[in-house]
Design goal:
27% helix, Purple Acid Phosphatase, chain A, domain 2, alpha/beta, 9 helices, 14 strands
Amino acid sequence: MLRLFLLAMLCSCSANHKPEQVKIAFGSCANEKEGSSLVWKQMAKENLTALVLLGDTPYIDTTDLEVQRRRYQEFASVPAFASLVKEVPLYSTWDDHDFGRNDTDGNLAGKENSRKAFMEFRKNPSYGEHDQGIYTKFTQGDVTVFLLDTRWFAKTEGSETNPTLLGAQQWEWLERELGSSNSTFYVIACGMVFNDSVRPGKPDCWGRYPIEFARLLSVIKNSEKQHVVLVGGDVHWSRVLKHDTESKVGYDLYEFITSPIHEKLIEAANPPDERVIFSIGEINSFLLMETNSDDELQFTITNKDGDELYVQTITCTVPNTSKTQASH
């Protein structure tokens, strides 16, 4: 009986957690300093139904197992973070620094240690498949969130001119699970950004894998899901992009980039781009996503003080149509 009770407590952070109203915080790039703690404290005021960490949470920069474990423990021991995740279900993926090295890919030696430490400290519903990767998904209310792993399989398959990002195994999972889901809204999230509008020379973004991004659009179209939104982090700048995907998907995809929770901005991560509809360099910031009604999903870029820097609403009206409304 005790074992069943403990299992039930662990599963409170699983895909079966379905509150009436959904309010999820997405965050990327955090450390143990006071600025990050102020973000955790603000999140605690938001009545969240989940917290999603998109990577570089924490910064580790090695695959040494003992260092991995120590850094996760130090990060988890921050009082404001520990208090938050004691009350709010936590879901996570990784980016490069917690995977093991800046701007790295799936050929990184020792990545098995990174996966082992991640699984010890982050209680996701699942961790990839067949002992590979950490991708997972969860559902709350009428929203399903897919957390992709854009590190484990990157450049381990395909060719030099057409390398994989997700890998055959993860692609099969995404196609199957997205196609069989029956929510109204879908969020596909990962540590990377889904575009190529990044600082000069940056190798790790979906824009460096154009055939993979084209495949993502095809998967979304074939799933016949009408309200898919992209969420990424990593670049130490917050932006909103509108992808011209009407001809490929049936509607334009919106991408929200949230970064950083800590204090470091990267000015070069804000190049001009006609797809960008909002951009701000705001330290100690995060993204809120919430359902306002049965047919409305709202995204808010906010900061440690709770200031609403940008708000966009996606409304489900009738099948095959949607409209958006933004303010800032």
